[in-house]
Design a protein that fits this description.
Two copies of one chain form a homodimer. Helix content of chain A is 53%, strand content 13%. The first copy, chain A, is α+β, with helices and mostly antiparallel strands. Chain A has one domain: Winged helix-like DNA-binding domain superfamily/Winged helix DNA-binding domain (Arc Repressor Mutant, subunit A), CATH 1.10.10.10. The longest helix of chain A has 16 residues. Chain A starts with 14 loop residues before the first helix and ends with a helix. Chains A and B meet through α1, α2 and α5 of A and α1, α2 and α5 of B. Chain A binds a DNA duplex (30 and 30 nucleotides) through α4. Chains A, B: Keywords: DNA-binding, Transcription, Transcription regulation.
Amino acid sequence: MATATTDPAPPVPDETTARFLKALASGARQQVMVLFAGGSELSVGEVAERLAIGQSTASQQLAQLKDGGLLTSRREAKVVYYRADKERIGAALDRLRAFLDGCC
Amino acid sequence: MATATTDPAPPVPDETTARFLKALASGARQQVMVLFAGGSELSVGEVAERLAIGQSTASQQLAQLKDGGLLTSRREAKVVYYRADKERIGAALDRLRAFLDGCC
DNA sequence: AACTCATATCGTCATTTCGTGAAATCGTGT
DNA sequence: ACACGATTTCACGAAATGACGATATGAGTT
């Protein structure tokens, strides 16, 4: 075996954490996230309307946030509802803190 | 006054947190950060050499990480030493968590 | 003051990201 | 099967980012 107990800290953030950071490192996507405060559930169209952006733009931002582990999606009939993924967000923050603990 | 006690959570991450995220949302800069594990102190030239990148590139990455609150710099004679800024990193993580708490 | 070393800044180019409209896809109802 | 409404995917130009070499600045030495 390579390592016995707990790895001190990965040499670089894993893919999942890296995508989490990239997803959040955008003012536009940060604004998207605030729409989901309080556990609200919004469709792609609603997000597009509230932020006054194109629907395809909203779809792509939401997809990236979902890929980054910040949102989950649920399909009801034709409309797709997005919602903040509390669990994965917490996990990502923990991994981020673990990585940074290894750096200072 | 506008708000009395504690703001529940800013509508969008403040400038400082946004810069923190942008600084960290880059594989190259993540690799830079791991060099500072264990509190090591490195000069610009050492960083450039260890990562096999140009000197000006290293200088710019370090500047951006410093701007994002991840590093501090200290000048000794001609050489500038960078080091992880444990305190500001912790503060940034706390602000990030506070912002995300407002989103889920 | 002239010289040298380490770092920072500038100008440039290649790559990536962002936002948009057009077209394709998916799920539903007729 | 067809049509529809909502979303996703695609292709494109515009803007931001990343890396480099060349040049400028800062600090110390002779």
